[in-house]
Specification:
The complex is a heterodimer. Chain A contains 19 helices and no strands. By secondary structure, chain A is mostly helical. In chain A, helix 10 packs across helix 17 and helix 13 packs antiparallel against helix 14. The radius of gyration of chain A is 24 Å and the shape is globular. Chain B has a single domain, classed as ACP-like (Non-ribosomal Peptide Synthetase Peptidyl Carrier Protein, Chain A). Helix content of chain B is 61%, strand content 0%. Chain B has four helices and no strands. In chain B, helix 1 packs across helix 2 and helix 1 crosses helix 4. The longest helix of chain B is centred in the N-terminal third of the chain and has 16 residues. Chain B starts with a helix and ends with a helix. The chains are: A mainly alpha, B mainly alpha. Chains A and B meet through helix 12 and helix 14 of A and helix 2 and helix 3 of B.
Chain lengths: 475, 80
């Protein structure tokens, strides 16, 4: 069930009415049922995987907490990792591993046949597996109590607004909210509705408009001029941001309607002045997860290596981030590109600080923002393609084919640019508070309402309503 | 060594590692309060603290430090 489909909004309206009509103590039970229905709407069978993950990790969490010795706790941690990563590897990475293994065998002229599996990746698997591993590891290290209420733990995993594409929640944030009684609050409905409106704007007006342009350019790559391919590559970064942060806005807004606060996933990434700043603002629930559960443990245990320990931890962490997106060498290279840039930033930190003092801050900061954006746009060429040769085709096209910028209709380009402009101005205003007058957070109730009315009208005028898939559904 | 003395010493280390003379630490401070304090230079700060106080934290202690107060209490615990 896509967040930008009519069926989703019918489901949401019905769920919301039933939720608030029910007495408080039955509301969470209803949310479990609604979430299970939401998950089974696409494919019924995959509910059994999630039930298995819930039950096994519920029991292992309690066992770790009750274990008398460190060794016993470690055994249960490994059992949980075996179950969670085993399921993830089987569904997501099996074919990739086998294909590469067979390739290796061929290299040594040995013929082996290991069967590939033709099975679709269960939706949301990478997201809820990471959330569950985080929960178990927190119990193991003693910073989280195990959840004894099986229904609460089920809802922690199943809660439908964040089930398919995150945010990857933390037990310490979400479980306490699930333990509270939620009462109807008009503010939750208003704020939740507004957040959903922003999400729809980003998805339907910005991401899906850019997507139409991308499809035309990428499907006819060899006929396009260099400037067209460059323009498509530069705005792809905005497309991914609008698509994913739009989804997150709808997820956070939906959760808010039910009285819950999910964690933020984006913090104005296009104002980042370097790549480490960018990764603190982009897909925060994943990058902070990798920071807490991979980067920190590795860098702490390797702290005697000096900067080399940091480089090593960065390499491992970003290869994990890359391959988390999917089983291709392009995602591995995407992760490596991020790690290399961050290693460069660590190694040159002092030198760059000295340079920054010699250049006017306005120039230095804006140049840093621009360079960060350009590097990210370059990395996303690798990210968006399946093979190195496809990525090379795009790069080759940019530098080798002169010609004019392609656009089919001036109005399409205009709608796309206005959409990007509104999204960016909103972010810049949130970050720097440049303008004295703000529209969407104005003190006047009327100005706020008019601003949101304009947003809705603009969505109806310029939105793309053919139910385009969200990019991050594939991960 | 008392808690206040420890926080003063840690403050000097923060100023040196993060190259920011304006840092004035208190117990509830986190990475949110000091923009230059991130996970990349956090490890440099930890190793400097360990050398200065001649202590060694284990992994679990490091993972559970939430703010400056936790760090200083951790140092005090190790020095006993």
């Amino acid at each position: 069930m896509l967040f930008n489909s009519i069926i989703y909004f019918i489901f949401l309206a019905c769920s919301l009415i039933i939720y608030y009509v029910l007495t408080v103590k039955y509301r969470n039970y209803f949310l479990i049922l609604a979430s299970a229905f939401f998950y089974m709407y696409v494919k019924i069978e995959y509910i059994f995987i999630i039930i298995f993950i819930i039950l096994s990790n519920y029991l292992i969490g309690i066992k770790i907490e009750r274990a008398q010795t460190k060794n016993k706790r470690k055994q249960f941690l490994y059992l949980s990792l075996f179950i969670n990563l085993g399921i993830l590897i089987f569904f997501k990475y099996w074919n990739f591993l086998i294909e590469n293994l067979l390739g290796l065998f061929r290299l040594f002229h040995t013929n082996n046949s290991i069967p590939l599996i033709e099975i679709a990746l269960p939706l949301g698997l990478s997201y809820y597996i990471f959330q569950t591993i985080g929960y178990i590891y927190d119990i193991y290290r003693g910073s989280q109590k195990s959840e004894k209420n099986i229904f609460r733990f089920s809802l922690f995993t199943l809660f439908f607004p964040k089930l398919l594409v995150g945010p990857i929640e933390r037990a310490g944030r979400l479980l306490p909210q699930l333990a509270k009684n939620i009462y109807f609050d008009k503010e939750n409905i208003i704020e939740g509705g507004r957040r959903i409106a922003w999400g729809l704007f980003k998805k339907l007006v910005v991401a899906d408009r850019i997507s139409i342009y991308q499809t035309v350019v990428i499907n006819n790559l060899h006929e396009q001029s260099g400037i067209t391919i460059l323009f498509a590559s530069l705005i792809y970064t905005f497309q991914v941001y609008a698509d994913f942060s739009g989804y997150t806005d709808i997820a956070i807004g939906t959760a808010r309607l039910f009285g819950f606060n999910l964690m933020e996933n984006f913090k104005r990434p296009f104002t980042a002045k370097n790549l480490s700043d960018f990764w603190r603002r982009w897909h925060i629930s994943l990058s902070s997860w990798v920071n807490d559960y991979i980067y920190n443990p590795i860098s702490y245990t390797r702290r005697d290596w000096g900067n080399w320990g940091i480089y090593y931890a960065l390499l491992i962490s970003f290869v994990v981030i890359g391959i988390w997106h999917g089983a291709t060498w392009n995602f591995v290279l995407f992760g490596l590109l991020q790690a290399l840039a961050l290693i460069y930033e660590v190694a040159t930190r002092k030198g760059r600080r000295k340079i920054s003092k010699k250049i006017p801050s306005l120039i230095y900061n804006n140049l840093s923002v621009l360079l960060t954006y350009l590097y990210m746009s370059f990395s996303l060429i690798i990210f968006r393609t399946d093979t190195f040769s496809q990525a090379f085709d795009i790069l080759d096209g940019i530098f080798s084919r002169p010609g004019k910028l392609f656009f089919d209709k001036p109005s399409s380009l205009l709608f796309m640019l206005i959409g990007c402009g509104i999204m960016l101005i909103y972010d810049i205003q949130q970050e720097y508070k440049i303008f004295r007058i703000s529209l969407f957070t104005n003190k006047s109730w009327l100005v706020q309402q008019l601003s949101y009315a304009f947003l809705l009208i603009y969505i109806l005028l310029a939105g793309v309503f053919d139910g385009g898939q969200f990019i991050y559904f594939a991960f | 060594m008392e808690h206040d003395e420890i926080i003063k010493e840690v403050n000097k280390i923060f100023i040196e590692v993060f190259e920011d003379d304006s840092i004035v630490l208190h117990d509830n401070m986190t990475t949110e309060d000091i923009p230059v304090w991130d996970s990349l230079n956090h490890i440099q700060m930890i190793t400097t603290v360990e050398k200065h106080f001649k202590i060694r934290f284990d992994l679990n202690e490091l993972l559970n430090f939430k703010d400056v107060g936790d760090l200083c209490r951790g140092i005090k615990g190790k020095m006993k």
